[in-house]
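Case study: M48 family metallopeptidase.
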Amino acid sequence: MKRNLRRIWRATLISAVALTTAFSPMMAQVAEAQSGRPRLPVVRDAQIEGLIKDYSAPLLKAAGLSANRVEIILVNELTFNAFVAGQRIFINTGTILNSETPNETIGVLAHEIGHLAGGHQERLRDQMARAQVIAVVASLLGAGMAAAGAAGNSREAAGVGSGIMMSGGGVARRSLMAYQRTEEITADRSALTYLNKTGQSPRGMLESFEGLLRNNILSGRGTDRYFSSHPAPQDRIGFLQTAARESPYFDRKDPPELQLRHDLARAKIAAYNGGANMVRQTFGKDLHSQPALYGDAIATQLSGSPSAALQKIDRLIASSPNTPWFHEVKGEILMERGRGQEAAAAFKRAVQLSPSRSGLLQASIGQALVTTGNPALMKEAIAQIRKGLDIEPNNYNAYRFLAMAYGNIGEVGSAELATAEGYWQAGNFREAKVFAARAQQKFRPGTPSWQQANDIITTR
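Here is what the predicted structure looks like once written out:
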C-alpha cells in the first residue's frame, strides 16, 4: 500500500490495558498476540465512522445516553465482533463487511449499547472481585482441610482438601461466566427495546446470531457451556426468534439510500483488506453495481495503477456527483500522483458534500497542500489542518503534516511542538516529551506555545 494511501487506513495501535471486559473474546487474542501491553489495531475513516455514528445516534437516544459522550472506534479485524469498554463501543470492520444489510450492524450496535446503558462493566468489575474472593476462600478452606488431614493421617481428608483447592478457581470461573451470560441476555432484551423505540426491525439482530451459530463462532463446541462468556446461542436465538417476531417493525426494510451507504462502506473495507478479489467475493452478484465499482476503483489504486484508478473514480463521480466519498478517493489518487492542489480541491468538495462534520476529512485539505512543497501554500495548509484538529484533536497523523508545513516555512519550534503533539496523541509519551522540551526552548516563556509544550512535559 502506498504511503499516502495509508493516511486514512493506517492501523494505529492504541493501548488496551484497561479493556479487560469479558464481553470481548477477541481481547484475549490481542493480549496473547502482543508482547508487553496489549494493543488494538484501530483504523480511522471518515466515511465509515460517519455511517456507524448515524446508526448509533437514535439507539443511544433511545437508551438515554448522550451520543457526544460515547465514542465509536473501528477495529481493523475481519472477524465478526463488537465490544464495549468505558464509554467506547469498539466494532470490527469485519462486522460491517459481513453484514449484508444495515439492520444487521444496527442490531449488533443495539446490543452493545444495551451493555453501556445497563452499566454492565461496573457490575462486571464487582463480580470479578467477588469471583476472586470465592477462589481465595476455596483455596484457604482446601488448604486447611488438607493440613488437618495430614496431621490426623487421614488420606481421605487430605484428598478432599486438595480437591477443594483445585476446584476453587473453577467455582469462581463458573460463577463469573454465569453472570456474564445473564448480562448478555439482558443486553439482548434492551436491544429489542431500543429497536422498537426507533421503529427499526430486530430481524438483522436475529439473523446475525443465526449466522454466528451456523459458523460455530459462539456455539462453544467441545467446551463446557458454563465456561462460555456468552449464553449458548440456541438458547439466545430461541428467545430472539420469539421476541423479535413480536415487533411490529419486524418486516421493515432498510431505506435504499442507507443500504447504498452501507454497501459503499463494505466495498471500501473489502478493497483495503483483500483488494479486487475480496471486492468480487463481496459483490459477486452484481459486479456492475456502484459499490462494486467503488471497491474496484480503490483496489486499482492500491495495486499501483493510479491512472486507471483515476479514470474509474471519475466515471463514478460523473454518475453520482454528490457522493462525497468518491471525491475523497479522487483526492487520495491525486495526492499519490503528486498533484497536491488538485487533491486539496477534491477533498474540499468532499467536505462540502459530507453530511458529517469530519475533522479527518477537513484536515485532508491541508495535508494535500503540504505535499505540494510550495511555501506559498503552507499558511493555508496550516489553517486547514488546524481546523480539522479543532474538530478531532486525536488525529495524530495530521500533526505529522502540520509539522511538515511549519518546517517548510522555517518555524522550527512550531514544527517540533506539532511533532510532540502527534506523538502524544499516538500514545508515545516518551518521544512527545523529548520534542516538547526541544520546542519549548524556542519559545518565549509564558507564551501559549511555551505553555502547551510545558503541559506535555509535565503531564504524567
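For the exam, be able to explain this: Residues 1-254 form one domain.
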